[in-house]
């Protein structure tokens, strides 16, 4: 069994419009944009990162805004809901705030003993806030939400599947343990994680397959401390028969990818070197940062990308 994984690292989704996406995460949810760069494979598309003060692994939501991309359709074989942790007793604040800002899909509910507030992102993305007592991670305090009500980071994510079997086996091989079950939901937790500790499986045998588009999660990344731990995970996954990519330098972390039996793209990302590798932490996310190979094309790339007003 793999022992190096410490919870979630980041979640990456797709969006239609960069400005709308930026406004939602910085102004509505009060997160900090910690990096403004471009998609490694499509430099005419932004890659935007939002998180806590420094983009701590386990707090970072990232987006590829593809312009006029049609919305995805929800279904099986995807990450259906990304869940953020907020301080205990703050859901009434968030209910009033999100309702006042006309956020769609607001619905209060309880799951595994947690009070939650479900809502939709600007492209129909599935999100929830979960009240968590004793989350010691510090929310970003420089935005539109104070740290008393702010988002600590991820609580976890929900994968919607037709069948639990192979994915459950994979999660347990990755170090997750089954800890609870409620109706069609099965909860898995990583021991001694980074706070973003839970993966919930929602099993709906008759669900249609999801189709990716704006508002869909592109991949979900799990955190390891460093490159040595990542190589150990890669070896273990290869030995078990998974088709794992070579290590890829993503500038702010190193990444490997593989697809689960249910079709969800998993990434294993290192906590090093972090988002302050090429920017002072006081100015994270302000300037457009480009991968080295695109530096000679900066003028062309900047001319193509739509400006983002902060």
UniProtKB/TrEMBL annotation:
<feature type="domain" description="VOC">
    <location>
        <begin position="153"/>
        <end position="271"/>
    </location>
</feature>
<dbReference type="InterPro" id="IPR052537">
    <property type="entry name" value="Extradiol_RC_dioxygenase"/>
</dbReference>
<dbReference type="InterPro" id="IPR004360">
    <property type="entry name" value="Glyas_Fos-R_dOase_dom"/>
</dbReference>
<keyword id="KW-0560">Oxidoreductase</keyword>
<protein>
    <submittedName>
        <fullName>Ring-cleaving dioxygenase</fullName>
    </submittedName>
</protein>
<feature type="domain" description="VOC">
    <location>
        <begin position="7"/>
        <end position="132"/>
    </location>
</feature>
<keyword id="KW-0223">Dioxygenase</keyword>
<dbReference type="Pfam" id="PF00903">
    <property type="entry name" value="Glyoxalase"/>
</dbReference>
<dbReference type="GO" id="GO:0051213">
    <property type="term" value="F:dioxygenase activity"/>
</dbReference>
<dbReference type="InterPro" id="IPR037523">
    <property type="entry name" value="VOC_core"/>
</dbReference>
<dbReference type="InterPro" id="IPR029068">
    <property type="entry name" value="Glyas_Bleomycin-R_OHBP_Dase"/>
</dbReference>
């Amino acid at each position: 069994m793999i022992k190096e994984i410490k919870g979630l690292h980041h979640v990456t989704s797709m969006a239609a419009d960069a400005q709308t996406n930026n406004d939602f995460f910085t102004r509505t949810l009060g997160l900090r944009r910690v990096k403004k760069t471009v998609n490694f494979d499509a430099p005419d598309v932004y890659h935007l990162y939002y998180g806590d003060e420094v983009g701590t692994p386990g707090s970072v939501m990232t987006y590829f805004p593809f312009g006029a991309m049609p919305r995805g359709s929800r279904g099986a074989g995807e990450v259906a809901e990304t869940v953020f942790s907020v301080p205990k007793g703050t859901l009434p604040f968030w209910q009033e705030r999100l309702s006042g800002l006309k956020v769609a899909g607001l619905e209060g509910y309880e799951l595994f003993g947690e009070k939650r507030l479900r809502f939709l992102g600007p492209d129909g993305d599935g999100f929830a806030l979960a009240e968590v007592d004793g989350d010691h991670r510090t929310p970003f305090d420089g935005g539109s939400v104070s740290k008393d009500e702010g988002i600590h980071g991820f609580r976890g994510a929900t994968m919607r599947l037709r069948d639990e079997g192979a994915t459950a086996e994979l999660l347990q091989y990755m170090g997750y343990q089954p800890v609870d079950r409620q109706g069609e939901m099965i909860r898995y937790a990583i021991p001694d994680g980074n706070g973003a500790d839970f993966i919930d499986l929602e099993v709906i045998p008759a669900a249609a397959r999801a189709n990716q588009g704006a508002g869909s999660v592109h991949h979900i990344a799990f955190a390891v401390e460093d490159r040595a731990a990542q190589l150990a995970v890669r070896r273990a996954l290869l030995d078990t028969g998974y088709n794992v990519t070579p290590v890829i330098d993503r500038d702010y972390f190193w990444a490997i990818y593989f697809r689960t039996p249910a079709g969800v793209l998993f990434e294993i990302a290192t906590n090093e070197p972090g988002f302050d590798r090429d920017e002072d932490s006081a100015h994270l996310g302000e300037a457009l940062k480009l991968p080295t190979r695109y530096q000679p094309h900066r003028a062309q790339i900047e001319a193509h990308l739509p400006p983002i007003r902060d």
